[in-house]
Amino acid sequence: MTTPHTFTFRPLDPLKDAELLHGWVTHPKAAFWMMQDAKLEDVERAYMDIAADEHHHALLGLDEYGVPVFLMEKYDPAHRELVGLYEPLPGDVGMHFLTPATDKPVHGFTRSVITAVMAHLFEDPAVGRVVVEPDVSNKAVHALNEAVGFVPEREIQKPEKRALLSFCTREQFAKAVAA
Question: Mind telling me which InterPro entries this protein's record contains (predicted)?
């Protein structure tokens, strides 16, 4: 049994955090992030765009020492990512998360991260359901999503990938993490 991790969140600073993020998103293990060939300026620009977008937000997850250990994005699927691909409900929020590659993997770390991300999203009483759209071939994230309560609905075609549209309600999340 691993000790649960305690994380806090802070808004990502596109300029101050770009170098750290660049190393994360260009690593071969982050292939599904689709930024493999990004230059530092590309990462800065992408996250400056997110910072300026009222419907998309990037946060860093910090460990107990305040060190950034993962990236989380949340977005309004009625305005970003999934527009026209499904019928959003009031209270839907979209989510992406990225744990950086490491030479010393910690058992259970990524599951702790997705659990913390979901708990953070559901801290907002307006959020009723989280929606994700990972690449259909990203089997590792499908397993993690299922572990925190996501239920796949169907495959959808996004401009950049074939995705598995999945949903998790507050109740499904509570039941999954209590198990």
Answer: Acyl_CoA_acyltransferase, Acyltransferase_MbtK/IucB-like
Distance from CA of residue 132 to its chain's centroid?
8
- CB distance 60 to 17 below 8 Å: yes
Strand-pairing partners, residue 169, are: 129
Q: What is the pTM of this model?
A: 0.91
Identity of the amino acid at 144:
L
Angle at which helices 139-147 and 109-122 pack, to 10 degrees? 60
DSSP per-residue string spanning 48-110: HHHHT-TTEEEEEEE-TTS-EEEEEEEE-TTTSSSTTTS-PPTTEEEEEEEPPP-SS--TTHH
Q: Are 70 and 98 in contact (CB under 8 A)?
A: yes
- Average pLDDT per 10 consecutive residues for the chain, totaling 179 residues: 71 93 84 77 90 95 94 95 93 94 85 95 97 92 94 93 96 93
Residues forming a β-bridge with 70: 61
